[in-house]
């Protein structure tokens, strides 16, 4: 406590008492408890960016809702070490240059202490690169590319980067575990013509081939960002008569794709449809009754899993606050804010190096379940189920049945991340 | 193989019909009013949103939405022409572009204000959800329906412009405004009528896309760029050119995805570049002298 000039007598006493207690407990807890008495900074500022407009704009909106709920809960209970959290939101527009400008604005002009959010993989890589220079912690809550945790963090050692949403392993590896038990021998894809689309399909093919050497991959078509009409893509891959369709289209594009695939009778001509992003709340709402029963989907969090008090309380609070069910980015962004709270309380400082080592290996009891932030690649490891679309009159949108749960610990790629294929 | 090719072409054709409806209005308006309406894509978007609004309002009736949405946009077109565009006809083309571009931004924000920034969708009407067998593969009834509407609009436009007295007047005003005016044609009123009609066509395209696409703010910008490609290829002011241009772009798109996926986006622009080199006034445009 070098700066005692600003403290009055009463505060000074408090600090002293806490300090004494800290000295007594510090050795046992492994960190100095003395810091709990002082505010690190008021308010603690968190800048969130995501896609807030267009066909994918629902994602940024849900991020905002999840993070805002966490902020309100925390602030109403006294904040973080007595400091309020303040948030600011920006539209990343899916453009790396825009997102980099947003990040610079947040840190340089607005005074952000943490950055969270980010939907696009390309954006995550661009902003992630910048974090070493900005030297603030970035917690990604959606973008899934493995180049973020394996590349930026593990190889390039940009330690400021973290992620509490799933990596593309959920899309490309867990999907292979589901697909191995399906009566499908030939697969084709129509997927986004960018990083996320390629990398998911590559992993799906590689891991499924290991589990089921008899399957074949017979067609692929890559749809540009902003595609509204998938007809030509559908007819191109259907000409190869695949038994299963794997797709990583998401948001409004996933909705349009399913609608058009229905028209082309794809669901009658194939035995399986898999979309790792198909269980997202906006897609469920967007398709409603048109979502074919039995389609295999997943997301980055499913609001009915796990059936724990923690999760039920979150869903309840979210519904009360926003009159809607929480989408997965709502949970991951909510979790990011709580991860920041826990890390700052534990570290007792906003010093980035200290926060990094605090976050490494930290455990989180989040709505999506128990979770550990891996120290090597700063990736949160938690389990998200796959399931089949079903229509349940108790819910205003389709939900998942026949949940398939594979423990994340088992199928997540591990350091030193051997190359695929 | 031939079957696969024909089938893919048929799919490309149906995709081209939305573009045709937008390009037809754009070209018609340019041919008669001599104004490049950058906001034409926004009228497509408005048509989609208003159709969506009426479909939701009336408990999912697509046909009523299809009827009412474009009608409201026609009224918007009337206001746009009567209160704004009319004041810039005599000005430099840059002013016209600025004004119409301003409306692109205004309409985008208006849509965001009213319906929010997120995408919207409605269910495909059951009557149009089925498929028929074409060349041994299922071809959606909806795509057939779109092809039918596109063909009907083409036929209707031809009859209207070539076979009716009104069409004669429109063509007269298009080829020489002053002479038509001197002969007693009420040119300003004619301009308003043509603009309303063009706006209605764009909105019809938008409304037709609602049950099978998702709609979102900004959807007008992507289609206006393609529509400009179409009219540049086909020839500004030529409806025949707009139709064939749209078909060409649709086919390039469908076959591009099949054979040259890496260059699919570039194909349309390469097509435009070739046309511009060989016939700068477009396939069916009139050479300015």
Explain what you see.
The complex is a heterodimer of chains A (421) and B (289). Chain A is 44% helix and 17% strand. By secondary structure, chain A is of the alpha/beta class. Chain A has two domains: 39-166 and 307-381, Response regulator (Rossmann fold, 3-Layer(aba) Sandwich); 170-299 and 385-411, Rossmann fold, CATH 3.40.50.2300. In chain A, the strands form three sheets. A seven-stranded mixed β-sheet of chain A has the order 7-6-8-9-10-14-15, sandwiched between helices. Chain A has a five-stranded parallel β-sheet with strand order 2-1-3-4-5, with helices on both faces. A three-stranded antiparallel β-sheet of chain A has the order 11-12-13, covered by helices on one side. In chain A, helix 12 links the parallel strand 9 and strand 10 (296-297). Residues 1-7 and 15-35 of chain A have low confidence and may be disordered. With 289 residues, chain B is mainly α. Chain B folds into two domains: 34-217, no CATH class; 218-289, no CATH class. Helix content of chain B is 73%, strand content 3%. Chain B is built from eleven helices and two strands, in the order ααααββααααααα. Chain B has a two-stranded antiparallel ribbon. The longest helix of chain B has 32 residues, at 2-33. In chain B, 49% of the residues are buried. The A-B interface holds A 52-58, 61, 221-222, 224, 226, 228-229, 231-233, 235-236, 238-239, 251-253, 255-256, 259-260, 262-265, 268-269, 282, 286-290 and B 4, 7-8, 11-12, 14-15, 18, 112, 117-119, 121, 123-124, 129, 131, 137-143, 209, 211-214, 216-219, 222, 253-254, 257-258, 261, 264-265.
């Amino acid at each position: 406590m070098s700066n005692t000039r600003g403290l009055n007598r009463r505060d000074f006493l408090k600090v002293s008492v806490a300090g004494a207690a800290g000295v007594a407990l510090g050795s046992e807890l492994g960190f100095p408890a003395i810091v709990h008495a002082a505010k690190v900074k008021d308010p603690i500022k968190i800048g969130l960016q995501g896609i807030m407009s267009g066909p994918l704009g629902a994602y940024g909106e849900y991020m905002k809702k999840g993070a805002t709920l966490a902020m309100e809960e925390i602030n109403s209970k006294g904040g973080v070490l007595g400091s309020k959290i303040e948030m600011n939101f920006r539209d990343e527009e899916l453009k790396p240059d825009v997102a980099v400008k947003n990040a610079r604005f947040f840190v340089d002009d607005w005074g952000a202490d943490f950055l969270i959010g980010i939907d696009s993989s390309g954006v995550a890589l661009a902003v992630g690169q910048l974090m070493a220079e900005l030297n603030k912690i970035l917690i990604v809550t959606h973008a899934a590319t493995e180049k973020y945790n394996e590349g930026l963090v593990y190889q390039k050692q940009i330690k400021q980067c973290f992620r509490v949403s799933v990596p593309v392993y959920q899309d490309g590896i867990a999907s292979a575990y589901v697909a191995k038990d399906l009566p499908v021998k030939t697969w084709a894809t129509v997927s986004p013509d960018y990083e996320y689309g390629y990398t998911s399909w590559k992993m799906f093919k590689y891991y499924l081939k290991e589990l089921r050497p008899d399957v074949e991959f017979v067609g692929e078509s890559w749809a540009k960002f902003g595609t509204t009409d998938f007809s030509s893509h559908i007819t191109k891959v259907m000409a190869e008569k695949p038994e299963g369709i794997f797709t990583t289209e998401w948001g409004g594009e996933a909705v349009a794709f399913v609608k058009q695939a229905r028209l082309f009778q794809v669901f009658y001509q194939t035995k399986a449809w898999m979309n790792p992003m198909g269980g997202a709340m906006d897609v469920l709402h967007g398709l409603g009754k048109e979502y074919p029963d039995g389609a295999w989907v997943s997301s980055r969090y499913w609001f009915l899993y796990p059936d724990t008090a923690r999760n039920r309380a979150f869903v309840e609070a979210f519904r009360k606050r926003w009159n809607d069910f929480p989408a997965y980015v709502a949970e991951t962004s909510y979790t990011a804010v709580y991860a920041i709270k826990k890390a700052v309380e534990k570290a007792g400082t906003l010093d980035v190096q200290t926060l990094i080592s605090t976050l490494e290996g930290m455990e989180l009891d989040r709505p999506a379940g128990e979770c550990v932030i891996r120290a090597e690649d700063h990736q949160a490891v938690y389990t998200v189920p796959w399931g089949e679309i079903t229509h349940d009159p108790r819910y205003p949108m389709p939900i998942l049945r026949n949940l398939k749960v594979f423990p994340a610990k088992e199928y997540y790629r591990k350091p030193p991340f051997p190359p695929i294929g | 193989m031939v079957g696969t090719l024909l089938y893919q072409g048929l799919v490309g054709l149906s995709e081209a019909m939305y573009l045709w409806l937008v390009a037809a209005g754009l070209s018609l308006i340019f041919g008669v009013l001599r104004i490049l309406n950058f906001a034409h894509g926004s009228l497509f978007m408005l048509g989609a949103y208003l159709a969506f609004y009426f479909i939701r309002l009336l408990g999912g009736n697509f046909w009523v939405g299809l009827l009412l949405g474009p009608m409201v946009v026609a009224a918007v077109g009337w206001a746009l022409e009567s209160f704004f565009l009319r004041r810039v006809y005599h000005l430099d083309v840059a002013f016209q572009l600025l004004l119409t571009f301003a409306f692109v931004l205004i309409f985008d924000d208006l849509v965001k204000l009213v319906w929010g920034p997120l995408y919207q969708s409605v269910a495909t009407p059951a009557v149009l959800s089925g498929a028929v067998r074409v060349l041994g593969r299922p071809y959606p009834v909806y795509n057939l329906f779109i092809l039918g509407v596109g063909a009907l609009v083409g036929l209707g436009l031809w009859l209207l412009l070539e076979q009716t007295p009104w069409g004669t007047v429109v063509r007269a005003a298009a080829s020489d405004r002053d002479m038509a005016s001197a002969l007693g044609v009420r040119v300003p009123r004619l301009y308003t009528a043509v603009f309303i009609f063009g706006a209605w066509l764009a909105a019809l395209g938008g409304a037709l896309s609602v049950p099978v696409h998702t709609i979102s703010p900004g959807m007008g910008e992507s289609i206006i760029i393609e529509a400009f490609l179409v009219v540049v290829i086909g020839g500004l002011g030529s409806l025949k050119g707009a139709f064939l241009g749209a078909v060409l772009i649709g086919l390039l798109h469908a076959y591009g995805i099949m054979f040259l996926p890496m260059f699919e986006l570039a194909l349309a622009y390469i097509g435009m570049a070739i046309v511009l080199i060989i016939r700068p006034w477009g396939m069916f445009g009139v050479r300015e002298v």
